[in-house]
């Protein structure tokens, strides 16, 4: 959706736009209310970035590729910088397109964490940029995760299963504590901190396709409808965000920057390809991303420049 909106915005801004293209854009916007909403949201994001110089706009596409892990089709520099502006604002795929809190029972902003105590005694800790709905009935307890990440301590209720539903699958508690994340690169990731979880990829989940995850295991599922085999993970590291920390072990620098950007208000832009060979291990504060960036700058060949809400990271 966001790529389509960016494509049409760039097309209309081109000096070579044709009347047929204008009509096609109008037809696309009129085809569904979500199309027009995406287009208008994009206009509001792009407006304050028009004043940025080319030096800042130019790295945007590279940054998007680092966050998304895939290439975007280009139509000139305007489309590249426009897509970068939108995706770096935190909207990648459907769940990132939603404005904070729009239509959700509970939502957090960039850099915010929030704890919720539900009626059944379950405790939820919402990470940055997270939006959920609470759907409790006589038959089940269901949390709909639209975007972001949460850690759940499940209250006891033998009569009603506890389920977290994402776009890419469901995670049913067979124990008491686990984390679910709907990532920016179109996947759901489940990490079990205690006991077990049944993870079933969407759509049409069947017993044969579900994964039974045990304590200390993690799995992910994407748009292909398959869940990866369980892998062992350091649960303390995977849930370090609950304590205001990002723990990394031999990560490529673009991955670290993308994660810091998830907790930061404003935009981080960088050339992913030029930073890919820089590996990072350590513990970084996510409640003070300026400090985290200063630590990286002090230990790596980096220059960090700030232009209002935009922070540029470059290799020197």
TrEMBL record:
Pfam families for this protein: DUF4880, FecR
The keyword Transmembrane helix appears for this protein: yes
Segments forming domain FecR protein: 106-197
InterPro entries from the UniProt entry: FecR, FecR_N, Ferrdict_sens_TM
Signal peptide, first to last residue: none
Domain of life: Bacteria
Coiled-coil features, chain-numbered ranges: none
UniProt cross-references to PANTHER family, sorted A to Z: PERIPLASMIC SIGNAL SENSOR AND SIGMA FACTOR ACTIVATOR FECR-RELATED, PROTEIN FECR
Protein name as catalogued: Anti-FecI sigma factor, FecR
Membrane-traversing stretches: 79-98
Keywords: Membrane, Transmembrane, Transmembrane helix
Domain FecR N-terminal intervals: 3-44
Organism of derivation: Alkalilimnicola ehrlichii
GO molecular function, a single term: sigma factor antagonist activity
